[in-house]
Amino acid sequence: MRVFLIMNVKSLHGGGGAERRFLRVFTKMSNRQDISVELVINSGLYESAKELNLISNSDKIKLYKDRSRFNFFWFSLFAIRTIIEEKPKVVHLVLIQKTLFLLYFFLFFKRKKYNVKVVSTIASYLFAYDINLKFSDKLIYKLLLSCSDYIDSLYSNIKLKSKKIFCTPCSFTDYDKFSPSDKKDIIVFSGRLIRDKNPLLYLETINEIVNVRKFSKALSWKYYIFGDGPLKNDLESYVTKKNLSDLIVFDKGDTSRVLKKSKIFVSLQQHENYPSQSLLEAIGTKNAIIATDVGDTRKIVNEKYSKLIKPNKTCLADAIINLIENERELDTKAEKAMNETIKNHNIKRFLEYLIDLWTK
Hints:
Layout: E1 2-7, H1 17-28, E2 36-42, H2 43-51, E3 61-64, H3 71-86, E4 90-93, H4 101-110, E5 117-122, H5 125-129, H6 135-146, E6 150-153, E7 165-167, E8 186-190, H7 199-212, E9 222-226, H8 232-241, E10 248-251, H9 256-259, E11 264-267, H10 277-284, E12 288-292, E13 307-309, H11 313-325, H12 327-344, H13 347-358
Parallel strand pairs: 1-2, 1-4, 2-3, 4-5, 5-6, 6-7, 8-9, 8-11, 9-10, 11-12, 12-13
Helix pairs in contact: 3-4, 4-6, 7-11
């Protein structure tokens, strides 16, 4: 059986949790004889994935070379042609993308003619919870659902109710790559630099700890912001304005080199921290976790071993100071969280579910 995973994104820097998860599925399934999992992706995603060591050269990659104009149109045509010529049994749409509306129309009208099963993943809480969706978003969402035989949803409390929908049992990351090393006094924020991720709250809290509360122990720590996005210039300006340049490090790319060494990770999303790849990577590298208590966050973050907080400066500052002052407790809880997460959120469990969905 041939399964095509289809996705078209510019880069994985500063995000791309769903893409990273399914690229790991592709790598894990590369030696299977009964199921051939193949990628239909664009060159920008391919190069980004190689840079992050998520993928290697393979004859199971159908590669579209990005163009400067009307790229979304040409990628859809490339995907349609590849489906017609290669005749996969299953097409799995990893992301909800307005740019792929042409492909969705094709699958809606022609999937039965070409005897292809369509599985779509809802990996965005914005769609699952219907948060701030534009009319055009809702239309493309409805089209995607109409052209799909089955829906793989990360979220159990999705607003849409349908017999097509199956809930993903877990998330996962590469725990061989994301494993702990010698720890240093480092705190990490990682994610796309947008308002929903709350990177400014992170910086405001560091300023609160250092300049307002005058917590001297915090001065020996480094505070990383991993990622890229539209708020980056504003964040850099804030750091300069508050004289935090000696403490704050902006970075992007492979987070494993820093997460292996860091001690604390903060995940501050406004609506949902599940199933954040960065959060799982941090837990796998034995970081103590501070996360906003929103959505399905508790599916990953256990309050016995981590700190679940309200999304405000006071709560975050209290949590960080508490962990810095109690490093022995920090290390013990981080190790327990790591062991529990690896047991429950692993690729073996996810693949069993996914293969069952493909073969229904």
